[in-house]
Amino acid sequence: MSKKRSILALILALILTLSFGFTLTGCGDDSGSKTSDPPANTDTPPTDAPPTDAPPTDDPPPSEDVPKSDVTLTYIIDRDTDQAGSKAVMERFTEITGIKFEEELRPGGAEGETLLKTRFATGDAPDFIWFNSGSLLATLDPVRNLVDLSSQSYMSKLQESYKQTVSMDGKVFGIPGRTSMGGGWLYNKKLHDDLGLTVPTSWSALIDNCQKAKDAGKTAVIGSYSDSWTAQLIPLADYANLAAVAPNFAADFDAERATYAGTPAAVRSFEKLAEINEKGFMNADYLATTYDLALEMLVKGDGLYYPMLTFALDGIVGNWPDEIDNIGLFAQPADDAANTALTVWMPDGWYACQGSDHFDEVNRFFEFYLSEEAQGILANKSSGNGPSVVAGAPSSPNVYQAVKEMQPYFDAGKTAPAIEFITSVKGPNLPQICVEVGSGMTTPAKGAANYDQDVEKERLQQE
Amino acid sequence: MNKKVKKLVIEIVAVILVLAIFGIPFYYIVINSFKTRAGAAQMSLGFPEEFAAVENYETAITTQNYMVATGFLNSVIITLGTVVLLILVCSMGGFILQRRRSKLTTFANFLSLVGLMIPPAIVPTIRVLQTIGVFKSLFGMVLVAAALQIPFTLMLYRAFMSTIPKEIDEAALIDGCGRLRHFFMIIFPLLKPVTATVTVLAAVNVFNDFVNPLYFLPGAKNVTVQLTMYNFYGKFASSWNLLMANVVLISLPPLLLFIFFSKRIVSGMVSGAIKG
Description:
The complex is a heterodimer of chains A (463) and B (276).
Chain A (H helix, E strand, L loop, with lengths): L1 H35 L35 E6 L6 H14 L2 E6 L3 H13 L6 E4 L10 H4 L14 H6 L1 E2 L2 E2 L1 E3 L4 E8 H6 L8 H13 L3 E3 L11 H5 L1 H7 L3 H6 L9 H15 L12 H10 L2 E7 L2 H8 L7 E4 L11 E4 L3 E4 L6 H11 L2 H10 L19 H4 L2 H5 L3 E3 L12 H9 L5 H19 L1
Parallel strand pairs in A: 1-2, 1-3, 8-9, 11-13
Antiparallel strand pairs in A: 3-12, 4-5, 6-12, 7-9, 7-10, 7-11
Chain B lengths: L1 H31 L4 H5 L11 H47 L3 H15 L4 H10 L6 H24 L4 H9 L4 H12 L1 H17 L2 H6 L23 H36 L1
Helix pairs in contact in B: 3-6, 3-9, 3-11, 4-6, 6-9, 7-8, 9-11
């Protein structure tokens, strides 16, 4: 009995050590082959033995007379933006080339970033992804994980201001997936007219308007701090005004030569946020109101103003299609009317991943995406939240009223990209800091100092 | 009489509480799945002004090439596989670990407790799955899900084993019962109550798991039911009506299962309690 058992134990131990050794060597093998040859089995069913049979899917580069290809491109996307336009472009592209697409969903926000980072770290990235431009892109370590597109011919179609937001170390990584958008104050036009108000161009005029609305028993400014990201809008949308007064602030801030707390014009952005609360312009339950409810208040005329990005228009048109022309937009006013400018958010877009076997096809898709035909499809499918950053892109036949009201700022050259597209870091706790300042829990100066600290920590993390 | 009234009041309060805690959220989900998109965006408990139930459910089912159906199939396979694997491995493991006292079993006990305490690391786990070639497959997902549940399940089985008298083993061996037969014919049937508990706990856990399939089972063909909810939910534009319809769809099967099986499960638990 005991002899049997000891033999058994021996065999078990043997198996264990063997399998352990095997996994170790297997691991080394895998990482070794990765450098010489991209992992072949990313989209073949993993039940097959992994390597050896890479060639079958590896067709020769598609030539002009054999346009149909049976490649399927995989991509990862979140559900935060309406994709009707890009879906239609993909369908058309499949019609032309035979290249198919396979979509994978990811969560939005920080969890989605973690997911992408995991996929990159395990060598299991898709062929291309949808992601933010600006400082958020840095979290993906684009130099290591994404493909440099700067030498592609279609790059010349893109606006320089957009390209800056998807560049790092002189390399350009992305193409815009949609139009840019504006951040400003959405307002209910009918209520605005009923109260006899005019669009304010200076901060004091805005305050006067709010006071009148308040006296008339209306909510002047809708606050929706239950979704804390909405609280950031006033400080963020103030950046174009700040840039008009302190043009070098963003560059100095990025080079750690300037701080929010040490720049009076920057603290002013937080002061505006606090002022709205101090004067009691917001709805009584602004701490519990959600973004969805806030949109409803704006549309139904319960509230006059809602500081927001123009992608909210897609949400409004989805729920209340008849009311969309009743919503207007103006840039957040500066103290001096001459300085009032519109803050612009650069679009999210597509990025090609390194390690993909099908970069040629991805590249063809990107080229097609920026072509006139595809941009036309995009414009027809979605109304757009602002001007396009692609040169020569046709504008949509049914532009929202609020987007039309953005155009004068562009025509007059009174726009600036939001600061998160210029600097390489954005403090992740800005929403919480804005809620604190916007509800009177801390002073604007203290809030600005807190944000500086937050950015400092983020910088340390990225190094 | 007084006692009876008191009891009645307590019972009524309890029922109302249960209704409030479980009933209202469920009612909220169901009623919102009947509304139009604008109606559901109000997030109210009110009755729908405009019914769109048929359209909602139709859209929820057909979105993305019947993604919900694929998700169902995958989730059911994963859940079944995990539960079977868990029961098989942990019942045997619990039996040995409880019955034998040696250095090896003490060490194994310690290891299983470690498994309870240390959270799984994602990247190394994926590496291991890639190395053995089961990453992105349902089988790999079953392995991961089972591995995550083993420590707890093992603990349940071990604890329950100690209530089964050793004399039964001795009687079986004396009567000339072989080892396999001893376990499968005599011990395993006695473990039925705890097996029922494990089935319910593990099935619900695995079926409702969101994060693990997200990381360990990527790929458009590999969706599980919980991931289908992302079809309708985004930070800036959500179709709450469709989301709620989806939630109803994916929570109905477990609910029905539980309603039909609850009698069995509960009776199994009770019978075990007396026997022990």
